Each structure stands twice: as C-alpha cells, then as structure tokens.
Fold these 2 entries.
Entry 1:
Amino acid sequence: MAKSENVKQSSQQAALYAEVESHRGYLLRFATAKLRDGDQAEEVVQEALLAALEGVGSFAGQSSLRTWLTSILKFKIIDYQRRVISDRAHFASAPDEDQEDPAWMDRMFDDTGHWAPRLAEWTNPDNALQQKQFFETFERCMDKLPKAASRVFFKREVMGVDTEEICKEESITASNCWVMLHRARLALRECLDRNWFQGART
Amino acid sequence: MNEPKAELSCREAARLMSLRQDTNLTPAEQEDLKEHLYQCLGCRRFEEQLAFLRTLAGRYARGEV
C-alpha cells in the first residue's frame, strides 16, 4: 500500500473515532434508563463503543450511526443484565410517585384550572430541530427532571417503549406511569419554552 | 335527559392530551377534549407542543442533527 494511502486511512479512522465518541452522551442516557445505575451504564457503554470500533467495517451506513451504535448497546445491556440477573438489588422498585400534583404544577394554572399565563406559540420549531444547541438544551432539560421521571420519559419517548412494558420494568402501576409521563412532558415543555423559544420570541 | 356538561379545565385537558399519547381515551373524554380544544387557544398550542416533543425525541434517538 502506498504511504499516502496509509495516512489517508488513519485520518479517516481518527475522524470515525471522534464521530463515534460524539454519541457517548446519548448512549449513556440510554443505558442509564435501562440499568438505572450510572456506573453500570458507563461500563456497558464502554464495552459497546469498543465493540463498535472493532466491528466498524460492518456499519453499512443504511441506518444512522446513532441507530447502529444503539443496536450494539442493546445487546451489551442484555448481556450485562444476564450476568447480574441474580442480583435483584439493582431492580428494587421505584417509589410510587405521589398522586397529589406538585407545587410547580399548581403554578402553571390559575384557580379555575386555566393556563396562567396562556401558552405562547413556539416560532420555527422545525428550525430548532436543525440545531445542535437545541438538542443540548433538550438534554439539559431531561437531566433536570427527577431521576425516575427522566428515565420513564426517555423510555417512552426516545426509546419508544410502550407503557405496559415500562410499568413492568419500573414496578409501577399504569396510572402511576401516566402521571409521571404527563408531569415530565409538562416540565420539559416549560423548560424548552424558557430556555429556547422564549429567547426566539423577544 | 342530558345532564349539563361540566366543562373541562385546561389542566384537565392537558392531562387528557398527554394520556392520549400513551393510551386510548374513552369516547366521552374524546368528546370533552375536542370541545375544549375548539375554544381554547392555549390548549391547542399545548397539543402542538406535545406533538413536537415526540418528534424531537424521535430525532434525538436517531441522532440526526
């Protein structure tokens, strides 16, 4: 192989490594939602990324890189769960959410249950979807949710798991799950409004 | 005899719109919600924003930015 070919190949490889690495944050959230434990999640993500870099030749580019990495991660998570399945301590159930609405929700509505203030329109939401910064804001907003709520939201909306399965995994009732999801959506909506769309309005 | 219908508050409408993303509403709930949305701009915005949140989460999952 000519020397220039070698150089070209290694710089391509470096770019690919950086590209793969840029998905680590997402993969960590994915693994944390499944495993509930940050340390375990890091371990599994590390395994998955190593496997991905080894097998990068099999990435056909038919799905997005993130989708491909996620499918590798899923296998690693199942593997991991098999290894620790006897240790049930990790899967202790989440405390049931209080059915009473929290105070921050009361502040969104007036005494008659109307929006206070009325929700403002989001201008150019499709434009926001083109911006990396917007997704970073979204991540920060998810991180601000209570842990269980963040996990349940991630499973439902990002991973697309149905509520029945989420209930089973989290050992909560369906109505509890719906309450958590609703609160998470309200909180995320407000967080995105405050940290992104409000700025675009003024 | 028709009972006078208790009008939905925005708070209740928002709960139903969120619930609708996860399970089916009863016909009565659907009807009440439809009526509320017809007359409430704030809730129509909430409906749009909820749908956007789902689109956003899907894009995020695929890592397409």
Note: Residues 10-62 of chain B form one domain.
Entry 2:
Amino acid sequence: MEQTNKNKVMQFLRGKQYPFIAIGVALLISGCIIKAMGFDPFLALKSLLSGALGTTNAWGETLIKMIPLIFTALSFSVAMKSGIVNLGATGQVYIGSLAGTLIATNFAGLPAIIHIPLALIAGMAAGGAYGWLAIALKNKFGANELVTTIMLNYIAIQFVNYMVSDPIRDYGATTALPQSRMVTDTAVLTKIIPNTRLHIGLFIAIAALILYYILFWHTTKGYELKVTGLSQSVSKYAGMNVKKNQTISMVMAGALAGMCGVIEILAIQSRITQDWAGDIGFDGVAVALLGGNTPVGIGLSAFLFGMLSSGANKMQMMAKVPNAVIYLVQGLVVLFVVGRNIFIWKSKKKNEKKIEKMKQAVHKEQVEV
Amino acid sequence: MAYLEMKHVSKYFDRVAANVDVNLSIEKGEVHALLGENGAGKSTLMNILYGVYHQSEGELFLDGEKLHIKDPKDAIEKGIGMVHQHFMLIPELTVIENVVLGMRENKAILDLKAAAQKFEAMSEKYGMHINPWVKVDMLTVGHQQRLEILKALYRNANILILDEPTAVLTPQEVGVLFKVIRQLTAEGKTIIFISHKMNEIMEICDYCTVLRRGRTVQTVKVSDIKDKQELATLMVGHAVELNMHKSIKEPGNVILKVDKLTYTNKLKVDKLKEVTFDIHEGEIVGICGVDDNGQSELIKCITGNETATKGHVTILDEDCTHAGVRHILDKGVSHIPEDRHNMAMIKNLSINENLILMALKKDGYSKHGFIDWKWVTKHNQELCREYEVKTPDVNELAGNLSGGNQQKFVVGRELDRNPKILVAMHPDRGLDIGATKYIQRRILAEREKGTGVVLVSTELDEIMELSDKIVVLNNGEVMGILDQKEATVEKLGLMMAGERMPGYEKESDALD
C-alpha cells in the first residue's frame, strides 16, 4: 500500500519540474537583456515584485489580472482535454461580454441578486454558442478548428466594434469614443476588499478551477472527454461519441470565455468599448501551457502572469525598464515550456556512465544466474 | 574459422541491454536460424550486422577478416542483404525502379532497360518471375517479398537476412520461399532466418542459434533436435505446455448470426462479399486467412465500428446491423481489437484509468456520474492479480508495461465483463510463448463457460488448435467452413489462396 502511495506521488511529480525551470531560464535571459539595454535587472525585479505584491492594493491588482487569465486558460484547457485546440477564447470573450452588457445596461429595476446572475448566464450562453459554432463547422464540414477559431475572433471583435459604434452606442457620452452605456448599479460585481478593485469574480474563478478538477478527475463524463482527447480510435472502440464529446467541450470552453468577458465588464470596465479586451485569449493559452492544463498549474501560472502585468508599471517607473519586457518574459516562458526537450539534453559522458553502470548490473546478474 | 562470426557482441540502449555477449558463427552455404521470443534480441543483432546499429562491444568477422560496417549501404557493398519484416519498397514506383533505387552505379540518366534485362534473367533463374514494369502496389504481399529478395540478390548479396519471412505468407507461398532458399544455398549463398516458428526452423534450417533475454543460449544442429518441444524449452528456458486441453462439448443455441454480409469501403472496394456463418454458445469459430482479406472489416461490422452495406448481423436474436458500438457492447459482446496500441489502450493513462474504459457506467465503478476511485482501484488490483499482469501497481502508466502485460490487462478487462460473445482479433500477436499460451487458455476457459468466441488469427496452428469451426476468408469471401477435425494445414492453405470448398463455388461457376 505504501508502494502505491509512493508511486502515486512520483506519478504526480513526473514532469512537474519543467515549468519551474522554464520560468527560471526565462527570467535569467530577460535579466541579461535588461542588463544589455543598460538597466539594472535587480532593481527591475525588485520594483516588479513590490509593484505586484507590495501593498494591499498591489495584491488586489494582481488578483484582478489573474481572474480573466484563469477563465481563458480554462477555456483552452477544457477544449484541449478532448483534443480540440481552441484559439478562439478571444472571440468568445467578446461575444460573451456583448451579451452580458446588453443585460447589464438594461433592466435597471432588477435586484442585484437576479441581475448579476442573469448577466453572467447570458454571457456564458453567448460565449458557449460561439464556441459551438467553431466545433459545428468542424463536425459538419471538417473545417480545422485551429483556423476557424482564429477567424471567428476577428468576426467577433469587428461585430462588437460595429455594435458599439451605433446600435448600442451611448450618444449621451462626454467622450467622442464610441462606447456603450454604463452598467447599471444593480449589475456591478461586489467588491471583496475595501479600497481595492478586487471583486467576487475571484471566487467564481476559483470555483471554476475546482469544478474543472472535479469534472476531469472524478466524473465519468470528464473521463470520457479525456479519453476522446487522448485517442479517438480508443474512444470509438469503447462506444463513445467523439463528435458529441468534442462539442460538449467546446461549448464549455466558450462558456468559460464568455463568463470571463461579462465579469470583466461588470466589475472593471463598466461599459463595453471597441477592442476593449485586446488579444485576451492568447494570454490564456500561455497560462494553460505553463500550467500543464492542471487546475493547480493554471492557478499558479495565472498568478505569475497577473503579477507580471500588475507590477510592470512600477518597474517602468522605478527602474525605467519598458514594460514591454514583460511580454518578453511571457514569451520566453512559453517557449521553454513548449520546447521542454531542450532540458532533456544529455551529455555523451553521462551516457557512457550509464552504459558502464548497466554493464556492471548485467555482469552481476550473470554471476547470480 | 567460420565464414561469418559475431564475437562477444553487446548492444546497450538507453534503458535496456538488448544484446549481451552474443556469439554467432555461421558457415558458408548454410541456413542458420535465429530463434527467440519477442524482445530476445534477434532483430537488434541482425541490425548490427546490417549496419543499422553499432555494437557497444564485440567484433564481427567475415571470411576471417575483421568487419566494420558503417551503415546499411556499406553492408550491401560487403554482400550482406536484409529482407525486413515490413518491406522497404516504394509502392508508387515500378518494380525495376525499386530495384535500382539508391545504387551507387546509377548514372545521371537511368538505363532501366538494361537493368530490367538483368533483373528478368535473375528472376527467371530463381523461378520468381515478376514483371519489372508494373508498380509495386499492384503486387501481392508474397510477390513483394520475392522482389525484396531479388533486390538483395541484384546487389550481389552473399549473406541474406530474412526477418520473420513467413509471417505474411500462405502455407503454399511458404513452400515456394523454401524452394528458393534451398536453391540459394546450393549456390553457396548463406541465409540467416529469423523466426519464432519452430516448425519452419525444423524444416528449412541446418543450424539454430537460440537467443534468450539478449544472450546466446546455445547453437544446435537442427537434425539433432528431437521435436519442437525441445526447441521451445531452449527458447523459453523452462518446459512449456504447448498442448491445449480442450473438452468435447456440444454447442448450444445460436448467439451470433452473420448473414450475407457485404461491406464496401470508401474506395468502393468490396472488402466483404456475402459472408455467412453463425456461432453457438460455447463454440470457438476461427476466422483464418492471409492478412487483409476482410478479417478486419468483418470484425468491425460485427462490433458496430463499421456498418455493413448489405446483409445482417444478428446478436442474441436482435438485428444489430445498424446498431452502435455502445449498444453492442452493452448486449454482452467483448472485443479484443487487432491494434492494441491504437484501439485498446492509452499509453499516457495509468493502468487504473485504462481498466475502467468499458465498464465506466456499471455499478461499483461510478455512482451518479462520479467515479468511485477507491472501489475501482481495489477491483483493478484484484484484476491485475488474477490476470497475472506484472506491474508495481495500478497507478503505473500503461505505456511502461511490456507488450505481454499490456495485452493481459486488455484481455482481463474484456473478460471481466463476463461476455456472452467474445470477439478476439490477433489476441496474442507479438507476445511470447508464455503469454500466448496464457491467453489461449483463457479463451478456452470462456468457451467452457458457454461464451461464443470469434477468433481471428493468421497463425494456422492457433486456429486449428483452438477452433471448433474454421471459416476461411479470401479476398472478402468465404472459401469454406471446416470442422476442426477435417482441417489440415494443406487444406486451409489452399483455401486461403483462393480455392473453394465444394458448396462454396461462385454462383457463376455453379451455373456452368
């Protein structure tokens, strides 16, 4: 039994060192580049950390940045588990945020306890439907989801831009920039800590991580999705419906991204504007890759990326390092995680030693025989 | 000193010692067998000789001179040719293009006509006529093998390594191959014959070197060997029970009926043509034929993985021709698929996770959609014990187990469901004798319990030993159905090659 537990632990730890090595190497290289640019890398790191974790407010900002990353990363991971590469979280975020905004800017009289969930559900439903579109194209016409999800991103962004530019535009606004009306008070997400912007979206994100864990590690449906993702031929042999399973995953992925969109609008943005979320989905891909599609991994790497982006401004202020360096760090981290084989490089000498060891073992065995 | 010698050869890979202190000495003009179970190191040793690998230790000698082989090209120039189990031919090219492919003598402009003349003269001489101008994908497997042999001879091979050459042949084709081998040795060529089939070694080989776990056990003169039991004992290291004990049993009711089943694939090729047979309770029906003569499609149609174009599959009195896989599995059909790695298991999941694949929704395994891992783990530990799966524990990744142990847990998983019908395709392909015999005994035990078994195998011995009834397929058609008692290798071989049993003539023939 002890053997079983030990093996379980070993199984769990297998390959878990790589993300940490990747982060270390990425920081090291970035440090060298900062140095080469003529700045002080240690001061940069110090101001980055204090900007991200130095005060209650800094903590709040870091956690705020972490929330959308968790959702978009989960959106990528849920699809990935069943073998679909969802690069369309961005589009699903936009569509979800649009639907959520429509609910949140209207129905002013509703109590918050109804208004907020209604907006969240609308966002999830719209995001989910948008995710479904990509998988339906794949199932019906065999269109590769890698291509369609990226294309659907542009359509979603442009659609939101159009909606904001006229149909839902707030013509009474003081600014000339097109934007929607404000979210009504009853739909604003509750803050957790006074004097920070940190909101209950954090709890929803953590709940999503836990549900993700329960689904894929403890339920029959999650197991089916996982098998579908690992081998379509095995899942067919076991009588599973590959298309149906992948559709379920993509709808869930879209819903998670849509949820992300609404939460950001309700809690932070207060209104929808053109291009409001940038390429938010791709940050999620990076987080999911670094976190190895595991719930704990996603939580930790979302926190790291949140830190990087909330501390960047202070780093620019104190150490004068341009905050674009953050993208460099993120890029390097992902590069080293994806190209992890770089670390499994073995020297010739080590190999010879191994052979020598094997020879000895073989000879010993011979004596025993 | 012998013609070809390998002395104290060892080869260490990253994690395994594939060959340890192997000695092999072969005289000119003999047929020398390399016998060993899967993973005994036969292929590694021959790949060293052919220049694919380099030995970690040891020396090679040819004709008394020390031999250094850089790569396969170098080996060919030194007169060593190899016919691999999986042919190294390019199907889109013609025969003659394949023959001259990569030869050093090739000029900028190929003179294929001259090459074809030389090739034809050679093929005439050995009685293996092949048209040099047809594309390789038009050739049968047997012809492709002959082409591989001719290709090596064309390059003046003196030593020919044949890696499991009979695996893809009908008994009659094996006969032709043996004739060619005898002619070659008569000319002074040396043949190294890799096999795990003891009958063939007894028939064609002069000497036999037995490998076990990477080491040479012994080199024996084949004429000194009493029977195949003796060879088997040498190979495995302890006595093996080769004979199966099968009780005499009256079959029960019909539980699976295949009626005029026709299957046309996406390329509009009829892979099955009006196949008809049925299976009773407690009966093993062997499906025999050369690889890719419709066996795979037949099994897919029975298990719901494909849908027949015409005809019917009736399982336990229900028409399941158009039923889905899940429905058929739930009716009590267990399926051991042909391709273990791609269909039956997932290497990156633990044994525990692999074992719940089929029974996921059954009581005990899960409740209200949640998997009961505690119960599952306990159940699977018992299953591994019962089916002799050697593993540290059930959390081990399935990919880390040996092929035999992987197959044992797949078989265990399927039999644990107490099937009424067992569909087993190549259940012991690539396994060692111990595991093979174990799985065969398990299949016989299922028959005792009253399970109806469909067994697909290309090993005639296995089919003849286990089956009550034998269905022979050729090109998607039933050539005849034999009782076990009336089946002989010769009869089955002729039918596998396309000869019909009385009563199974083509309708057009019957009218004449």
Note: Chain B has three domains: 4-236, 241-332+419-512, 345-417.
